[in-house]
Amino acid sequence: MKATIIFLLLAQVSWAGPFQQRGLFDFMLEDEASGIGPEEHAPELPELEPLGPVCPFRCQCHLRVVQCSDLGLDKVPKDLPPDTTLLDLQNNKITEIKDGDFKNLKNLHALILVNNKISKISPGAFTPLIKLERLYLSKNHLKELPEKMPKTLQELRAHENEITKVRKAVFNGLNQMIVILGLSFNSISSVDNGSLANTPHLRELHLDNNKLTKVPGGLAEHKYIQVVYLHNNNISVVGTNDFCPPGYNTKKASYSGVSLFSNPVQYWEIQPSTFRCVYVRSAIQLGNYK
Ligand SMILES: *[C@@H]1O[C@H](CO)[C@@H](O)[C@H](O)[C@H]1NC(C)=O
Ligand SMILES: *[C@@H]1O[C@H](CO)[C@@H](O)[C@H](O)[C@H]1NC(C)=O
């Protein structure tokens, strides 16, 4: 029976790397602590599973990182190892993300899909990713963001897509934990009122190089927002309550970076009191001066 255990152990190691190996050791240690030898338990061990997912063809897998960039892939490879924590699919030709593409990846923390040709993401495609913290979708052809995002997401970047509007539903679907939202270089002309209220922990909002005509609503009431990039837009007016709450008693983190240059609004048209809640002058880049 001992031999079976060792065989199982070795088999686990060669399939899945050191992570699972530790799990099995823990299991054996527990057995020892309880005074029950592995012999008694051995008959209850699960049958040897059929050979599980291996590293997808031409990808490289190491320490739970699966690296499949620059392979000309037109879809997400099948049977990705379920213990993957980082999946890199950048610089491929993937056009669509389908439900089920990531169905086994319960341990995934970061997903890199930058520089593909993705124009469609099925609504439930990311929902199995219950530990996903970082999602990079920049340089694709997305016209909108999916409404259902993992609740663990802290950083979402979708720069250089074709997003035209940021709807409130997208913020509703994002989780409360999100800290960084990057949407630079799209064609965004508006951000729905009330969107920011759904992401109370947002610290960075990148909306530069879009087509916004006004400062997104809700920044003044937002407690933690510190970085707001709005340069290279079509903002012609900035109101005195766009960034700071009317009263001085409101608790609000100070801004560390706000950019408004390259907009039709001229810096001398912006009332100095607009930035009354900013304590570091250099945090504000109004420029059109160089
Ligand atoms: C958005 O909010 C601002 C300020 O509260 C308000 O003036 C504006 O009319 C609202 N816009 C829409 C479309 O609800
Ligand atoms: C900028 O906004 C104005 C309306 O405020 C609009 O007429 C104009 O077409 C916009 N310019 C661009 C480049 O989107």
Gross CATH architecture of the domain at 163-289: Alpha-Beta Horseshoe
Give the terminus-to-terminus CA distance.
76 Å
Summarize the main sheet: 11 strands, mixed
Q: Would you tell me the structural class of the helices and strands? A: alpha/beta
H/E element order: HHHEEEEEEEEEHEEEEEE
Task: Report the CATH C-level class of the domain at 163-289.
Answer: Alpha Beta
Helix percentage range = 10-25%
Overall 3D form: elongated
Average pLDDT taken over every residue = 83
Number of helices in the DSSP assignment: 4
Oligomer: single chain
CATH topology of the domain at 163-289: Leucine-rich repeat, LRR (right-handed beta-alpha superhelix)
Which compounds are bound in this model?
2-acetamido-2-deoxy-beta-D-glucopyranose
Fourth-tier CATH superfamily name of the domain at 163-289: Ribonuclease Inhibitor
Low-confidence stretches: 1-41
- Kindly provide the radius of gyration, computed on alpha-carbon positions and rounded to a whole number of angstroms: 24 Å
Task: Order the strands across the largest sheet as they lie in space.
Answer: 1-2-3-5-7-8-10-12-13-14-15
Domain LRRNT: 54-86
Subunit structure: Binds to type I and type II collagen, fibronectin and TGF-beta. Forms a ternary complex with MFAP2 and ELN. Interacts with DPT.
Organism: Propithecus coquereli
Signal peptide: 1-16
